[in-house]
Amino acid sequence: MEEQVYAVPFSLVGFFFTSKSVEESIRGDLSPEELEKLQEIICKFLFTENVQVAIYPSVVPPDQAEDAVEELEDMIFGEEEGE
Which residue range forms the structural domain that includes residue 37? Predict the structure, then answer.
């Protein structure tokens, strides 16, 4: 019987703090090898054996950041009753 493989979306949410602009803060020269290394690290520390990870690094646009923070807070702490 053929083993079935599933693609399951997941997310890592974080923040970076800087006095520079967003454009100045993010490397634009991430190599395929470096991206592969990030994927390997995520696999090693977050998942069990025989799980593969594919990632696409992106940044929430600053004008949407407040909404993203509120969504993250709701996910972590739960929504207040009555909201």
Answer: 24-77
